[in-house]
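#struct-help
A.M.: can someone run this one for me? Single chain, 229 residues.
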Amino acid sequence: MVWRSLARRIPCPVVRHGTKRGPAMTMTCVILDIGGVLEITPETGWVQEWEQRLELPSGTVNRRLGDVWRAGGLGSISEREVHEQVAARLHLDAPQVEAFMADLWTEYLGTPNDELIACVRDLRGRCRLGILSNSFVGARERETSLYHFDELVEQIVYSHETGIGKPDPRAFEAACAGLGVRPEDCLFIDDVAVNIEAARAVGMKGHLFQDNVRTIARIARHVNTAVLM
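D.P.: on it. Structure tokens below:
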């Protein structure tokens, strides 16, 4: 995803006071994806660079490691085992494996979407907040260290910890259950259309992330409408 500078800014939602303010604040919920939403994660071309370096045909890395990527995403393999499989399948020595994985994490972690993160931070105490991420083994430690998402929201559901990834309906149900909210009270934000469709199928409201302007405006409508109900 190519990140574009925003032409204008919309302030984070300000919760309006209403007669049912207490209950609405308790139940209203916003759940967000990480990669491509809270993190800006354009492709860096690292896989292609490694294929050129190793003189491998295009597509070889993902063909050889596809099942490793899937296993890492569902937590059925450890970080150590990922390293071992990378070494064995690409014929890399230990320093090369470390460099390969460092390149993977550079793209995976991207840079923080500071404007949206600030918006979510402003919502704390006004509605329930969660994260639902299709992740990779080792993501929690790195994202906590870099971005402190554990301080931003009340709950983070990582696919590599639950063994369930989006668009599986159980992933959305687990995110709602963990926050003690009904799906219909939740706005889910993701940059992948099929995940938005899956969230809507379980009763959640969905917003396809394209930029901060529209996303922050959608959050404002969701939070303020719920408070005034």
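A.M.: thanks! Confidence is low (pLDDT under 50) at residues 1-25.
D.P.: also worth noting: The chain has two domains: 21-41+112-228, 46-109.
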